[in-house]
Amino acid sequence: METISYEYEGSLYVNLTNRCDCACVFCLRHNGHKGSIYDDDLWLEHEPTRQEALDDLLSRDYSQYRELVFCGFGEPMYRTDDILWLVDQLKERFGDKLPPVRINTNGHANLILGRDVTPDLAGRIDTISISLNGSTPEEYCAVTQPKDGVKAWEAMLDFAKKATAHVPHVVMTIVDKDKTQEDIDRCRKITEELGVTLRIRAYIED
């Protein structure tokens, strides 16, 4: 049984795609098992259709979740239009009972889709969490290995900046593994200049 949605730490996570334009060195996809610490079956043999995802999400009791998170085992914003459609459907049905909506992303949506999607997030997405993962373009490319190289770094920073005009909470995250204080300070400076929040995540061992 493929997992479209799963619960983790009081939130409901939505898994829509395995596609990704990065090959991050710390990604769970590369450490020898297809599952993760959250769920054993996140690798999708086929991507769920909008309707399959909606049917799955409509079966949930949203009063018990603190957040609805589009995340999963790939880059969710390959399916930006489907995410927005799903959020519209859920808001129509549940209104204020729907918990805040977050997208965890690498910030490459505009690069991947060839258009600025940030205005479409307004009124739908409460938090956007972007993986910063490096304090310089060189470190970023070494850690995330994006197929578009330095262009992806620039696109990610531009996406974060644009998102601040449309999304109430824009957060950029780094994983603390192998980070010096100097690296962290540089990351903090980047986020301050963009007007977003920095969150430092602990590295989770396999």
Structure characterization notes:
With 206 residues, the chain is of the alpha/beta class. It contains six helices and seven strands, in the order ββαβαβαβααβαβ. Helix 3 links the parallel strand 4 (101-105) and strand 5 (127-131). It starts with a strand and ends in a 5-residue tail after the last strand. Mean pLDDT is 89; it is low at 32-39.
Strand and helix layout:
Layout: E1 5-8, E2 11-14, H1 50-58, E3 67-70, H2 80-94, E4 101-105, H3 109-113, E5 127-131, H4 137-144, H5 150-163, E6 169-175, H6 181-194, E7 197-201
Parallel strand pairs: 2-3, 3-4, 4-5, 5-6, 6-7
Antiparallel strand pairs: 1-2
Helix pairs in contact: 1-2, 4-5
Précis, in short:
With 206 residues, the chain is of the alpha/beta class. The protein has six helices and seven strands.
Contiguous runs where pLDDT drops below 50 for at least 5 residues: 32-39
Radius of gyration: 16 Å
- What about the largest sheet? 7 strands, mixed
Q: Which structural category fits the helices and strands?
A: alpha/beta
Q: Largest sheet, order of strands side by side?
A: 1-2-3-4-5-6-7
By DSSP (H or I, 4+ residues per run), the number of helices equals: 6
Mean pLDDT: 89
N- and C-termini, Cα separation: 24 Å
* Percent helix: 25-40%
* Form type: globular
What sequence of helices (H) and strands (E) makes up the elements?
EEHEHEHEHHEHE
Tag the structure with descriptive keywords.
alpha/beta; 6 helices; globular; 32% helix; 7 strands; 206 residues; 17% strand; seven-stranded mixed β-sheet
